[in-house]
């Protein structure tokens, strides 16, 4: 096992326990159960091997779907012990063995329809489930120096009955959801670095600088703040608009970004239209990131059905694929 240093924060940077700045770059993968059950040609450990040895990732973000709100027939909360022992623990243990940081992400996506035409949900509608999730996960990984906790993937509004166009209230998110989850995690796992997003799919983050989440166990707090950024976001929600108010004041990590030409509205884009702007910003501010997503089903895809990188081609012979598929682009910037 590679004993990776625990991470914490200092001022606006993520550092190790000796105070050395750490800039983690890597990828997201699909939900481990989805890989185990539905992906062909690879196992969970194959995926870890590929992103660590072939791509050179230093971190992997692992989205754990809590409930079966996509109709896939699986989810963490209804089979916690099975999910933990069959999918999550073997993957995280292997990451620790090879020296790969692992972000465990409670992967709720507010606003997406549930099965059977049930209504979308707000983050407070999932408070009990979030507490159940972290009450199980946090103590299991408290001793893992390579594990980081991402408390809630993409909150939007407090309740499903609230207007989805905003306003997006940081104080409600922080006081009624983020702070209680952080407090719960800290009762079980006092040292792991915690990632905190914000309302409107982690696009309304200015409150992190003026009203930050408190860390009851660590001073300075071992908390960093995240955003997600895609080509389909409104022009006023590009990465500079979202992060400029906080990037020099609190630690920041870009836990999702991606593009795929011809895919859905949110991710439709190219390296020229989106990717280069993103990389220029994170490089200028020395920010870590995890690209979305090293998978061949979920968009924005980095690999094809044979698990070969999309866009990893000669730019002159295949300019459309080179510019419109993100696998090769991510590899070049890791």
TrEMBL record:
<dbReference type="InterPro" id="IPR017853">
    <property type="entry name" value="GH"/>
</dbReference>
<dbReference type="InterPro" id="IPR001547">
    <property type="entry name" value="Glyco_hydro_5"/>
</dbReference>
<dbReference type="GO" id="GO:0008810">
    <property type="term" value="F:cellulase activity"/>
</dbReference>
<protein>
    <submittedName>
        <fullName>Endoglucanase 5A</fullName>
        <ecNumber>3.2.1.4</ecNumber>
    </submittedName>
</protein>
<dbReference type="GO" id="GO:0009251">
    <property type="term" value="P:glucan catabolic process"/>
</dbReference>
<comment type="similarity">
    <text>Belongs to the glycosyl hydrolase 5 (cellulase A) family.</text>
</comment>
<dbReference type="InterPro" id="IPR018087">
    <property type="entry name" value="Glyco_hydro_5_CS"/>
</dbReference>
<feature type="domain" description="Glycoside hydrolase family 5">
    <location>
        <begin position="16"/>
        <end position="295"/>
    </location>
</feature>
<dbReference type="Pfam" id="PF00150">
    <property type="entry name" value="Cellulase"/>
</dbReference>
<keyword id="KW-0378">Hydrolase</keyword>
<keyword id="KW-0326">Glycosidase</keyword>
């Amino acid at each position: 096992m590679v004993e990776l240093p625990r991470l914490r924060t200092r001022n606006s940077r993520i550092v190790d326990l000796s105070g050395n700045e750490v800039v983690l770059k890597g990828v997201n993968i699909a939900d481990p159960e989805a890989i185990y059950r539905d992906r062909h040609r690879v196992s969970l450990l194959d995926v870890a091997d590929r992103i660590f040895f072939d791509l050179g990732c230093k971190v992997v973000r692992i989205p754990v779907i809590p409930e079966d709100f996509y109709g896939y027939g699986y989810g963490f909360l209804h089979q916690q012990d099975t999910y933990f022992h069959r999918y999550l623990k073997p993957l995280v243990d292997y990451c620790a063995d090879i020296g790969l940081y692992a972000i465990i992400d409670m992967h709720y996506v507010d606003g997406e329809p549930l099965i059977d035409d049930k209504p979308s949900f707000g983050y407070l509608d999932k408070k009990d489930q979030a507490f159940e999730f972290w009450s199980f996960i946090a103590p299991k990984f408290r001793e893992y120096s390579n594990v980081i906790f991402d408390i809630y993937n993409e909150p939007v509004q407090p309740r499903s009955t609230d207007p989805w166009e905003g306003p997006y209230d940081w104080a409600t998110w922080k006081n009624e959801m983020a702070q209680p989850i952080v407090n719960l995690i800290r009762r079980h796992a006092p040292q792991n670095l915690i990632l905190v997003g914000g309302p409107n799919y982690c696009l309304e983050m200015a409150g992190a600088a003026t009203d930050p989440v408190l860390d009851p166990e660590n001073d300075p707090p071992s908390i960093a703040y995240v955003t997600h950024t895609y080509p389909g976001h409104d022009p006023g929600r590009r990465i500079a608009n979202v992060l400029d108010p906080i990037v020099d004041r609190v630690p920041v990590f870009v836990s999702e970004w991606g593009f795929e030409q011809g895919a859905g509205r949110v991710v439709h884009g190219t390296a020229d239209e989106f990717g280069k702007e993103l990389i220029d910003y994170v490089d200028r501010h020395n920010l870590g990131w995890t690209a979305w997503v090293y998978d061949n089903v979920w968009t924005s895809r980095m690999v094809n059905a044979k698990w070969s990188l999309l866009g990893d081609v000669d730019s002159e012979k295949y300019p459309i694929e080179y510019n419109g598929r993100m696998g090769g682009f991510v590899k070049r910037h890791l």
